[in-house]
Task: inverse folding
């Protein structure tokens, strides 16, 4: 960590000038489940987003792209329970949601970011959203409760809210960045059924903001895989309202780097938490690949955490490393299999690491199966697969989870 | 079916001059499980093969490539229980297996095709194979039992033998083609943990034989997906010994086409059976895509049958067609989502078809959920997903299976 950074509470409400809210409006049948979220900045904010690469895209994506064309936004609305995708009237409904934000919260339609997550191909009724707006707006709060309600309202099959914020310093001025995310199934690199909403009070131009998140996404959210399905609705958005009062970041340099580091600390945390909370998952699997150029290392790491056979073996605590070599081999990267070593590692703390090398020079080593079992059933429920391929300095990390009975159960009848 | 073709019994022993055998030699602990297979031609046969595209390849693949460089072979040996992959001495062991065939069956080492399937990264002992050779060779038989033992000996987690043969006519001469296959997990297009061994008594040059299987694989074995994992050991091989006495096929034309059709009938059957017998599968899922060029239709069909979310929905009999649109959207093919229609279909017989259209013009239609449930729980355990994208004549079909608790169970602890 090159620039000092401090974890703080509050998620998207941690930065100055942001409030958030979450209510149950009725898109979901379960009244205990919040299903509508609003995040608002006190002032208009430089804003940017990255989107799913699926060519079937939700209507909210199209509307957000249009609204962010000028690089500014001031509010974000998101519902769960319905993706508003593959609906004939999808764009009209998404625009109507933005109009409701203007009507009830006074933010112009063109400054609203919109997202939806849930079932694809079911018309999204506007009535419950309209009915929920007064409570949603009156619930806006800059306290922790405001953030927590917003974080809860975007969850679908997620079991846990995903929230993170940091304070950091830019040119002697204290700044803050915070985020919430959802995503549990239909998760695959390239922005997949994943939503992440970041706020910051840093002063930065829309162009530099877009550059920062585009670079960051490649090594954060795009390195997560739960099931290989790239969703139609993924989006990561950021609003930077400048209220910290730092000197405007309008070019690369130390200030930009300090911002990017803080951004990365939020996104890396959220990405890992999405993998950890993968549908049915019992374990977080991290795969780090060392010794080859980062672009290749990313492909290999992703291929390993995406393999159903690797994921099943991790569930069963089976040190079947051949499946890892196999997944590496179909990653699309050319490498010399005889140079590969593979190690499993788990840790209770940085000075209590439990690890076992299972493959060296591309072949089996005579490892202790009991030790391997100990690593793979480690109480931390976090297993690192550490791969070394060559002597280069490039490396990458991907995050995934094990494949369990519960993944099948959850997805066997999601709509009911 | 342009050329008349008749199903016949006998698998790889159906063509003239082929015998086969299968024994338990001890690579597998379970003595009930055959683990060593031999197929032999009375005379040297034009031979060809296609191989996995995984860059980590089993030692048997390297040895077979070398032995088939001249386009001829006369015997095939295959063990199950150990893939002989990622082993420092893998090539030596594979060569030693070929030497055992020469020693015991009198076929020169350079005319032996070799394959192995099972766990990756565990040294393959040669001793049990050497001990099993006398019984393996003395068991060679041209009867159905010979074929069935061979088919059983190549199985790993397969529940069923996969066997098919046809007789057909080339220039007034009756010819035969037959095959066996294995494959249940680690199955993904591009030849994945799948072995298929075909024999035929057709007279054909090695060049035309290679052309026939290379074209055929694109629309047969490469269109199967069980779990998206492309294995290190996949191989499809064919031996054509010419004993039917037809005029040698040395160019394209009617005779070649008749052969290709018969070949396709064997490979299509085996490919479908591999999907049906996918690890833990309860249903065969076929996805056919119509209206766009075949090369694109293939990518889309494969993407749909490969989606964990689609596969889970099929297991749960959930008509969640949005996941199908989603999988189409990340297939890498550009198409207009608003032109897509999706239908589920199942049939007890060609005149007893049960079907339901769930999506038209890329959006939901008001379909009967009870009818959808009826289709998706159909007694045939075979569900067709029929997708229409445009008005073109191109089309393709891919085969997969549902994702079940048992897939996870089987793969959670495969090595024990």
Result:
């Amino acid at each position: 960590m090159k620039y000092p950074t401090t974890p703080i509470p509050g998620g998207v409400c941690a930065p100055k000038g942001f409030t958030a809210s979450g209510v149950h409006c009725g898109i979901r049948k379960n009244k205990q489940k919040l299903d509508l979220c609003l995040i608002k900045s006190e002032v208009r904010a430089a804003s940017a987003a990255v989107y799913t690469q699926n060519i079937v895209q939700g209507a909210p994506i199209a509307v957000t792209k249009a609204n962010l064309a000028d690089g500014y936004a001031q509010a974000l609305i998101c519902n769960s329970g319905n993706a508003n995708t593959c609906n004939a009237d999808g764009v009209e409904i998404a625009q109507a949601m933005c109009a409701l934000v203007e009507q009830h919260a006074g933010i112009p339609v063109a400054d609203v970011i919109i997202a939806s997550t849930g079932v694809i191909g079911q018309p999204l009724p506007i009535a419950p959203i309209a009915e929920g707006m007064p409570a949603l707006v009156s619930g806006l709060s800059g306290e922790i409760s405001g953030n927590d309600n917003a974080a809860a309202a975007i969850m679908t099959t997620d079991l846990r809210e995903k929230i993170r914020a940091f304070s950091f310093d830019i040119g002697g001025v204290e700044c803050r960045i915070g985020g919430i995310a959802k995503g549990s199934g239909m998760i695959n690199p390239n922005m997949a059924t994943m939503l992440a909403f970041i706020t910051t009070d840093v002063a930065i131009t829309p162009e530099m903001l877009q550059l920062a998140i585009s670079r960051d996404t490649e090594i954060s959210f795009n390195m997560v895989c739960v099931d290989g399905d790239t969703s139609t609705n993924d989006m990561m958005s950021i609003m930077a309202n400048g209220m910290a009062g730092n000197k405007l970041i309008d070019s690369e340099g130390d200030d930009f780097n300090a911002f990017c580091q803080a951004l990365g600390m939020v996104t890396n945390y959220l990405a890992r938490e999405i993998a950890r909370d993968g549908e049915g998952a019992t374990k977080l699997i991290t795969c780090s690949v060392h010794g080859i150029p980062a672009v290749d290392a990313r492909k290999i790491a992703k291929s390993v955490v995406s393999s159903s056979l690797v994921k099943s073996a991790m569930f069963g605590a089976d040190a079947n490393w051949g499946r890892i070599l196999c997944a590496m081999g179909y990653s699309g990267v050319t490498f010399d299999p005889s140079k590969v070593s593979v190690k499993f590692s788990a840790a209770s703390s940085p000075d209590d690491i439990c690890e076992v090398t299972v493959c060296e020079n591309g072949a089996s080593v005579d490892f202790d199966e009991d030790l391997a079992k100990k690593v793979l059933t480690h109480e931390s429920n976090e297993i690192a697969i550490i791969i070394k391929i060559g002597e280069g300095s490039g490396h990458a990390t991907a995050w995934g989870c094990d494949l369990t009975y519960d993944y099948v159960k959850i997805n066997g009848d999601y709509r009911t």
Observations:
- Chain B is about 30% helix and 30% strand.
- The two ends of chain B are 46 Å apart (CA to CA).
